[in-house]
Amino acid sequence: MASHETRDESVPHPRRGTQDMAAGLFLIAVALIALWQAQGLPLGTLRSMGAGMLPTALAVLLAGFGAAIFLIGALRPGAAFEKWSFRGLLFVLGAIISFALTVRLAGLIVAGPLTMLIAGAADPQTNWKHTLIFSIVLTAFCILLFKVALRLPIPVITFL
Q1: What is the pLDDT of residue 118?
Q2: Each residue of 47-73: pLDDT tens digit?
Q3: Which residue range is the domain that position 130 belongs to?
Q4: By three-state DSSP, how is residue 127 classified?
Q5: Amino acid 81: pLDDT
Q6: Which phi-psi region, left, alpha or beta, contains residue 44 (left: φ > 0; alpha: ψ -120 to 50)?
Q7: H-assigned helices in 76-106
Q8: Are 67 and 99 contained in the same domain?
């Protein structure tokens, strides 16, 4: 700016997309962890894929998407970080832990809706009627998919 120009404070300064940049870095970090964990697995060939082929390929794709998201955030103005609380983190992690603790003890019919109801508490504006309906429908879908279609040994109900 020249010395005689003044900046209008009512016009917000365009920020680079810090949320996108952070999301891109997070995806790259997850991809690097996946690559590190898959490094001892044999890749094999395209004709005879080894155990490490899929995790390595997915990690490379994830890193590529992370890099693209980071670059988009670095080149374009975007949303800055907003204030957030630990409520969401607490309830989502609590939901994951509750699923791990209840799926074998009570079965998917209890663990599924319980998990989604706990995760629903992460948002203070949750519509509990919709969350309950969604949790029942999604649990029924999971039972059909994992138990019936894929025939996985996931307990559906253990207390009857």
Answers
A1: 97
A2: 888 888 999 999 999 999 999 999 999
A3: 87-149
A4: coil
A5: 74
A6: left
A7: 87-102
A8: no
